[in-house]
Each structure stands twice: as structure tokens, then as C-alpha cells.
# Entry
Amino acid sequence: LSERLIVFGRFNFNKIEEKQMGYNSSLGRTENQAVLKPNYLYAPKKGNWDNQIFDLMGGVSYLLNRNWSAGAIIKYKNHKAYRTLDPRPDIQLADYKLQMHLAYTLKEHKLFANAGLGSASTTAGIIYVDDSQNAPAYQETFTKYASGYGRVVFNSSYPRYLERERPKTAGIGYSYKNDRSRISLNYSYTKAIKNTYNQDANRKVYFDQKLITYKYRDVKHQTKLSYDYDGKKLDYFLELSYDKQTGDNYSVIDQGQNYQQNKEALTLNTAWLRQEKDRMLWQAELDITYQDSDYTDLLGYTKKEVSALTFKVELGRDIWANTKNKINLSVFAETYLPVEEKLELAKVTSDTSFTDNVIKPDHAYDSTTKMTSGAQLNYTLSLPNKKSLRFFATYKNLAALNHAYQSFAPELNVSSSHFATFGIRLFY
# Structure
């Protein structure tokens, strides 16, 4: 808005339909995590889900004087999900976050610090059109509760329950910048405790300390060292990051800890870009990640460990461009290589449904060497006032490269999985 004031933001709306998903009546999904957070209701019965997600972010940055600047970012996310088949979860999440930052700049050097608070509340419940289906005799539709990773109990609060977490974040950083390059070192810390609230003696549920049944603590540390080079003909980027995450679940009912998880990841990202005026002649990206993780259920007696290497290569270029139109094509391949894996299970109940249909297939997937390959095509149309409209299409293929999965889930019929995405984006 001026030389001293910058305002920025975004708005996203997603409507997502999921087909035939069971064993999960929460908002958690395993696309970006090997194991869900430990406290959630589920039933084996598969059904279709509808999701609506509103995601807003707005921020401001103001130059106080020659050296000092300050700013703030506000984020809001509303996620509603449900399905229309017994059992019928109906879940709504309201997630707020506020982060403040302060920076000091002296010539080519910049120091900054940030801190933030958040509040995420989940209101959820499960209903049955046919109440008789929620009985032990009907194992497919009987609602159970997973607290940990292998410990399964019945939870009488399934008609309505609440969750709330209030994450706290903090970070510091330093950067050095000259005409062509920038080097920066950042550290961030996040801590959150998610409380689960069940019904009181009168079958009412509300946010009250005495109704907390589980406390899940999640702590994350992230350190990044990055280098940017803006050349006359070639741009270059290099980043080395280290992430460490720990989680532990405390059961108020049992007066003790029943679940632990630890994850560490070391990632190297590097990219090259050759651009001429408004046309990308070529781009290349290489990502390498080593991740080590373990998950321990202390009451269900599950011990899962996975160490793996991931390599990703992407190549792209503008295959046609003029003053208003541009077509870009990129191809990519990602290989997942397990380095070490272990799964230990102790049978503590005659009901092995969760073990057979969740834990073993999950570990079969995580212990198998596999490759994802595909391509993305983008068509960008320039609009007035520096706006642009982009149409894109993506295709991906996921295939197993060995038969390690048969050690844990020999009944699986594994073949290639195919993914196709189409969309429109507006840039302004």
C-alpha cells in the first residue's frame, strides 16, 4: 500500500469427496503422516465422506523506521466433514492462529523473532439411523475408540465429544543478503496439548477440566539453513533442514501415559532455474530426505519403527510462450527406500480387527520400496492489472518396486495406483 506498509493474504475453499473410507471417524488422514494422532473413534464400515474446508490468511508488515519492522499474521480454518452411512460422523473444526514478528535490519544483516498463539476446537459426534447397528454383535458398524496404536476400547461419549488444543509457537532467525545472494538460518518451536472431553454423568459435554479424558502433547523443532542465488542467467537454491517431533498421550482414566511417538527428518532441497525475460528455459529440482520414526503403544503393546530414504527429481520448462499465454510442462519421479523397519505386536485381545486391517497394512506400505512418477501441465493466461489465470492438470502413478509388503499383509492385491488432478488458480 506504501513504501512502509505491506498487506497480504489468501483465501482457499476446498470441497473434497472421499470414497469408501473406514476405520477412521476423525479429520486426520495418513497422506502426510504414517500414523494418526492417537485418540479417535472409528468403525470398520467403509463409507463416502464429504468435506468442506475454508482457509483464510491475512497479514500486515510495517516499516517502523530505517532499521525496525513489525508485523502480524492471522489465520482461520473451518473444516466440516460428514458421511451419510451408519455410523455417521459429523465433525466441525474451527482453527485460529495469530503470529507476531519483529525484525531488525542493519545494512545486509537482518535479525528477526516471532511468537504465536492458536486455538483449535473440534465439535464432533456420531449418530445412527438404525441404533441397533451400534452393538458388539455388528462388528462392522459398532463404534470403537482408538487411544494409542493398537489399544481399542468402547467410548460411550460417541454421540458427542469435544477436542481443543492451544498451540504456542516461537522462532528466531538471521539472514545476510547482498546484490545476488542471501543466506539465512531459522529455528522454530511449536508445542500443543490436545485435550479430549467426554460426557458428564448427565450425558452433557462441554469444555471443563473435569471432563478431560485424554491429553496428547505434540512438540516440534525445526531448523533450516538456506542459500539463494539470483544470477543473471541462472538462479540457484539450496536448503538443509532438520525436523524433530515428539508426541505422548496421557490417559486421565488410567492415570498414566499410554502412547509415544518420535520422528526425525533430515532434508536437502536444491533447485536450479534458467529464465529468459518471462520465459522459463528449464528448471530442475532435487530433494533428498532421511526420516527415522517410531511409534509405541504401551497398553496395546505395539512397537513400530521405520527408517527410510526418499529421493525426488523434477524437471520442467515452458514449451510455448508469448506476451499473454504460456504453457509449462514438468515431469517428476520420487523413490521411497526403507532402510530399516520393525513391527512388534503382542496379542492382548481376541479382537484383532484393528491390527489386521490398520496396523499391518500400514506397515506393509511403509516397509515397501516404491516409486511415484508423473507429469504436470500448466496453461497460464495473463490478465489486466498484473493478474493471471492458470489451468493445470496432473497425473501420478504409484507402484511397488518389491514384495516386502507380503511379510505383513500377504492378502493384499497390490497394483499400480493412479491419480489425476485438474484445477484453476487465480494469481493477483
Remarks:
- The first strand starts at residue 5 and ends at 21.
- The chain has one helix and 20 strands.
